[in-house]
Amino acid sequence: MSARPIREELLEPLRRALGWLLTLRDARGAILCPEHKLEHTGKSAGAAVLAARLAKLDRPEFRAGHLAAAIEQGRRMVANVHREGTSECHTFWPGRHDKFNSSNAVIDGGACSDALAELVETLGAELGDDDRRAFAHASTLHARTYLRYAVLDKGVPAQRAWGLTGLASAWRLAREKELEAAAIEAVGALEGVQNADGSFPYHPLEWGAPHAGAGDASSFYHSRVPAFMLFALEQLERDPRDPLFARSLYAALDFAEGLHGPDGIKCGLVEAKPWYWGAEYEVASHVFDVYALARAGELFRERRFSAAAVRAYRTWIEHLKPSGEPRSHMPGPGRTKSYQCPVFWACHAEWIARALPLLEEHWDRVPRFERAGSGGGIDLRIRAWGAVDLVRLEDDAVVAWVRGSRPGYNVHHGSPHGAGLLRVVRKSDGAELLARRRLECAQEGEWSARRAHFAPARGWAHSSAELRFSLWLTRNHARGGRWLSALAAPFDVARRGVLAFASSEVSSSFALQTRTHIDGEGVTLESTLAHRGGEAAPGSRLVRRFELDGRGLVVHERLEAAGDARGAAFHFPRQARERQETSGASHEVRYRLA
């Protein structure tokens, strides 16, 4: 790892994000979320780590302020340790005790135990004896009484993995066999639920997922799991390259890198939890990708990992407001506010701070965009992840993602697009060549038609349960003072859920099942037209071919039969070149994206 000083270009955005967080403090030093009106202790833990890392890496004139902020937030965590009733369990509040904390005890506890151990180790002699004892005691107390159990029974892999970071960090302070044994068992449990292609289900069905779509992969959550596993293994003084761990970790990191485009943005339509986001992409999770991919580049000595980490950080910086408040996405047609709050995103930047020396080492080696012929002699590259039926196509001109089959979905759970193209990006300038809108049926690069009639029973079957959840969204908006959004939430869920799923519209992108054929030049999907929700239009047949030729993506599609659907039409992408369309026994289209 490079010992060179960290350049201002990398430090300033993190300093700005921390500065914005510190403007939110009250008289106690608590960082109060403007949206949820409370102290997110598990997130303030991230602010403490961010400050501690900057205290060591930033320019001398800023270090005293960073040190003071780190210690202040450490004391806030200690002040928020509470015993759970008459049990021996001690947790960091508010955790589950305030629904608007938007977190739970294992996430908050993992973050706090990890952060307190980090302060003890990173600040060293700059930490007073009383604070050192208090920080170490709170970290290990929570790990002994809660984390060692929680990492083995939570239903969401990313939650278990976050708890694992705190358990492993507390072990470094206490060196207790019980903590180590629980941590290693938790790593094994995460490996056990991992898909064969390296991806993780957001919420495995066997771990209690409420809907099949929640068991899909998540571009937002995925990188947390390998990032936290890497971190925890190294805290436990285990080598992630040990054959016991390497295969699982490498596969997970490969999937994480495969989601990233040459523009530093992930293919966000592979998402088990789409209701979190107001756009078809987000960069809030880039902080975890940066850490995971930077460490992957160091461990496995593959440039693609380091390059993806650098581009992910650059894109995160571009989304940072001048004030230091992060954004999950840029404004645009059809885009709305995301559910999570910017306090979460700013505090999570601790994981970028932990990777700063690695980013410094590779920063100048990674161009903003790829130039033609820069692929090291690999003109065409096709990668596939079979468990999620995702294919990445890449040549010197573009990167494209094609998805085949996927689990069922509704307004809140599961990936809303599949059975065709998800995203296409030009490598030379990062231009998006395929537009996606949240609710449209007539999407670019898709077939649409209508069949039968409006079917309220179908819409109700898919989304009636989601109407109850809309009341929670109403309360959340109201707490943030967004009164119009609060009033609109039930109607919005009814529109996007019940009414949209009851519609007579059918589309190629709504199909849930495909026959996927991959060869040396591209991928072919055989599928159908389907209603939103996946019900196939009887008798419809589609053959969709996506192929590379070294100069971009060539698409050839054939609607062999529309079945009982009427008015079938194909919607060419606005960026499409060399368009051709013929009708006869079948309806065929050809075009190029480059």
Helix content: 40-55%
The assigned structural class equals alpha+beta
Spatial strand sequence of the major β-sheet? 9-10-12-13-16-15
How confident is the prediction overall: mean pLDDT?
Answer: 95
Largest sheet: 6 strands, antiparallel
- Give the amount of beta strand, in percent: 5-15%
Low-confidence stretches: none
List keywords for this structure.
594 residues; six-stranded antiparallel sheet; alpha+beta; four-stranded antiparallel sheet; globular; 16 helices
Describe this structure in words.
It is a single chain. This protein is α+β, with helices and mostly antiparallel strands. A hairpin with a 4-residue loop joins strand 12 (540-548) and strand 13 (553-562). It has helices spanning 8-22, 41-57, 60-79, 105-123, 129-150, 157-174, 177-193, 224-235, 243-259, 286-300, 303-318, 342-347, 350-353, 356-362, 456-479, 483-502; strands spanning 81-83, 90-92, 381-385, 390-394, 398-403, 420-426, 446-450, 505-507, 515-518, 522-527, 530-531, 540-548, 553-562, 566-571, 577-582, 587-593. The protein contains 16 helices and 16 strands. The two termini are 38 Å apart. The strands form four sheets. It has a six-stranded antiparallel beta sheet with strand order 9-10-12-13-16-15, with no helix packed on it. A four-stranded antiparallel beta sheet has the order 3-4-5-6, covered by helices on one side.
